[in-house]
Design goal:
The chain has 13 helices and 2 strands, in the order H-H-H-H-H-H-H-H-H-E-E-H-H-H-H. By secondary structure, the protein is an all-alpha fold.
Amino acid sequence: MKNHHARATFLVAGAATLFSINGIVAKWVMEAGLSPWRLTEIRSTGAALVLLLFMAARGRLSELKIARTDLPMLILFGIFGIAAVQSLYFFSILHLHVSLAILIQFTAPIWIVLYLRIFRRQKIAPLMWLGLASAFIGLLLIAQVWQGLKFDGAGLVASFADALALVIYFLMGRKLSERFTGEAMAIWGFSVTALLYGVILPWWSYPRSIFTKSVVLNGKLAGHHLPGWVLIIFVIFFGTVLPYTSVLIGVKHLSAQVTAVIGMLEPVLAGIWGWIFLRERLTTLELVGAVVVLIGIYISSFMAAELPSTEEVSHG
């Protein structure tokens, strides 16, 4: 059991690492002229195809078989857990200060714990509350949202809706993991997102010039260029396929709330990569915040390793 927990923790932490790196690469692609919506469309479509080919090559297509009663939940998982999480995040950062948008998004673990406590009437260990409080205070210190805030009604609504979508992603992912493998869940989720975007933004109008465009890099890589297709492949494989699948495999052995808390590593690591690659400065307060987040993640994960998952108590 402990080995499964350690492996799951490693997978989710690895996913947070890849997500944080992907943020830099995705930013380069969007600065080159590709809209966030089109980037979401191609990353989801590409991820679905890559995972489908992987499953076919491994002779595991049978894992994609579903009962008719599974279809509504898988569609909801794709719409809210995959498409909405990405789309609402991109919309929110267009209308709010990025730090505020990220802070609101990562209130998801708090809403998960409150949902389990109030609506599912599950007991939450005191260490989980302590870990959540520590991690959230750390995020406040990192984001420093009190400096130069830009409030926008639509942006605030989108950010809180994004946090809700993230809650759905973790809770539904945990529930679906009882019947499906992480790869199968990811294929269904990305396929639903790809179909949704294919209807809203037809492929025949896709700005194909981005694939051959020479994208300018910045920060310590200033002066260097890479073709758009190279960066998009990175976003699809390292920024989508690997991290999303890792989370969905990891949540099978962790509770949804612990998985979400470990995900708080992402903004911490994003700040580190920004310092390394983009020459962004890290203040003392941000470094203190990063340490506090790590302490909170450790407390929450340690609690989960020692106590039974609250989600294993009841599955209504």
